Amino acid sequence: MKLSMKRISPGRMILKPASFHMAFEKLRKAKFICLLLFPLLACSSGKKEHPEDKLTEADLVAKHHDTTVLEAHTMAALDTGKLEKRLIDAGLVNIQELLPEVKVALKYSTEDNFFGKDVYGELSRCYMQPEVGEMLKNAYRELKSRHPDLTFLVYDAVRPQSVQQILWDELDKPDSIKPLYVADPQKGSLHNFGVAVDLTLAYAGSGEPLDMGTGYDFFGYAAYPDREEEMLASGKISEEQVANRKILREVMLAAGFSGIGSEWWHFNAYSRKVAGEKFDIVK
Ligand SMILES: [Zn+2]
Question: Which residues of 71-102 are buried (b: 16+ CB within 10 A; e: fewer)?
Fold first, then answer.
């Protein structure tokens, strides 16, 4: 399939709208569309699902980085002060109060994310369930014992349902295909429960992130942990990048987190079932 793309930054591509339509129709007809992972959907399910289809990596990357998904008009205004109060009232903890050494850069508080929109406003602190914070503390201890020069750089943890709702409402697509782009806010996601964490490793001194082979929110196969051997063999990622990912995975898994097959940066503290039993969705 030929797709018309233009490179906007290393590792990021967008489709022109007309080409996207054609490409999407082809993808839809391929019957495997339901297996495609999209950022907020994949980050929400916690399942080790990934395409078993014949789609090319270019198809996936192009689909995931379609910047036509959001209307150009302004996002619904979000009162950041109220949002943060809701997180605190919900009993969530600011991870940097538990772990001051950990670095935080909320990608959804910038325009450097899949949607190209700042949906967190002025929110700069990262919140999660206290139990998950304790697990992350254990992972951090494990990391420091193995690599004293490294720290965590957290991109996202709790993603309130209200933010998920904004993304859902702003998505300029028929309701029937919206779930392919954004997790349904009514069903909730592991990020909505505050039990999922997106993070990478960084040098403690400079704060510079380690090279993981792709950036956050890169949704081609090069970001798939369960395709690392294949990506390594084809030269898409290097031994060093895989080694860096392994450090992150090992310390997170040692603390009780589980990863998913399609995003090296995403870790769940609990399954969807357990999260639903233990916690309420954060509004
Ligand atoms: Zn995630």
Answer: eeeebeebeeeebbebbeebebbbbbebbeeb
pLDDT tens by residue, 243-261: 999 999 999 999 999 999 9
Query: What confidence tier does 220 reach under pLDDT thresholds 50, 70, 90?
Result: confident
Task: Map out the domains of the chain with their CATH numbers.
Answer: 5-278 (3.30.1380.10)
DSSP letter for each residue of 33-95: GGG---HHHHHHH-------S---HHHHHHHHT-TTSB-SSPPPP--HHHHHHHHHHTT-EEH
How many angstroms does the Cα of residue 152 sit away from the middle of ligand 1? 15
- Residue 262 one-letter amino acid: S
What's the CA-to-centroid distance between 153 and ligand 1, angstroms?
13
Backbone angles phi, psi at 7, to 5 degrees: -85, 130
Tokens at 56, concatenated: 């090319």
Distance 43 CA to ligand 1 centre (A): 4
In 3D, which of 219, 220, 198 has the Cα closest to residue 209? 198
pLDDT tens for 74-94 read 344 456 678 888 899 999 999
184: CB partners within 8 A, 6+ apart: 168, 178
Contact at 8 Å (CB) between 34 and 28? no
* d(CA 231, ligand 1 centre) in Å: 21
Look up residue 196 and give its two tokens: 């999922």
